[in-house]
Amino acid sequence: MNARARRLVKLFLRVIVSLGLLFWLLHRVDPGKILASFRTIAPTVWLSAFVLYLISQVLSSIRWFVLARALGFAGRLITYLKFYFVGMFFNLFLPSAIGGDVLKAFFLSRGGNSKLRATYTIFFDRLMGLWAMFVLGACAAAFAPDVLPWKLRMLLFAVTVTMSLVLVFMPVFQKLINFLLPVFSRRLSSLLIYWQKPSSLAYAFTISLMLQFCGMYAVYLMAKGLGLSCRPEFYFAAFPMVAILTILPISLSGLGIREGGFVYFLGLKGVAPEKAITLSLGFFAVQAAAALLGGAGYLAGIHRETIGCSAGEKRD
């Protein structure tokens, strides 16, 4: 089987997983109640959630700009904003939730720039966002321990602490990796530049906290618009575990898995599956509306700029 055939088979399997999960979920609920729930969300709620999500994506592009500059890439912030929104469009509408990330790395590496460093900016951008999301979730669960069962709280704390230790002590781990796998360690050398620039790391993490707060608060606003009475801390604590499932390359942009996650976690609070699915699909609609801006920009050719490297920076 050649590479193209394998890609088609993977795409087919992801479609099957997403459609199968959606069919199973919708088969267990009343579609009429889902439509009725959508109609209860006021236009002002839709607009507020959209604006908050849009702000979070602008902040994401600023974070990527900071991380790229730390690795020696030049370019204006507006260029990174354009690339980010185009990537956001393809992340949402390509079969994988990371398809747009591949494009962003390609945009960044054009003009002879290091492909490895470009990939590291994308990887670390994702990692910082995930870390901030879990930190916020762990803080929410610590201040409001009743929002999740204790087993899920312990899982949330464990993942957060593990990620924090790995990120903080990465230079130490790199020495161990260098001893065991010297060839692989050399490939990590560019990534470790971030630990030599703590101000860039602190700035990127602060931005990550801000943008994750905006995104999760948008979910909370939509939930309130649906008449759900769950506390804000619940969404901050539960959302990281739902979000990480959607990143797994087993579905079509997380479709079906995300809805199942919402049904499970909201079900812990006695929320009807129809309401949970409405909230999930509603937030997906907000994401899609924002991503369409990137699609329009792609058609307009905003992705055609080339970014250089700062003077004196090494190109791998």
Provide an overview of this structure.
It is a single chain. It contains 13 helices and no strands. It is an all-alpha fold. The protein has one domain (17-24, 48-300). α5 crosses α6 (115-143). It is globular.
Q: What is the succession of H and E elements?
A: HHHHHHHHHHHHH
The strand count comes to 0
- Specify the biggest β-sheet: none
What average pLDDT do the residues reach? Answer: 86
Distance between the termini: 33 Å
The count of domains is 1
Q: What percent of residues adopt helix (DSSP H or I)?
A: over 70%
Number of helical stretches of at least 4 residues: 13
What best-fitting shape do the alpha-carbon axes yield?
Answer: globular
Rg for CA atoms: 20 Å
Strand portion = under 5%
Return the structural class: mainly alpha
Spans of at least 5 consecutive residues whose pLDDT stays below 50 are none
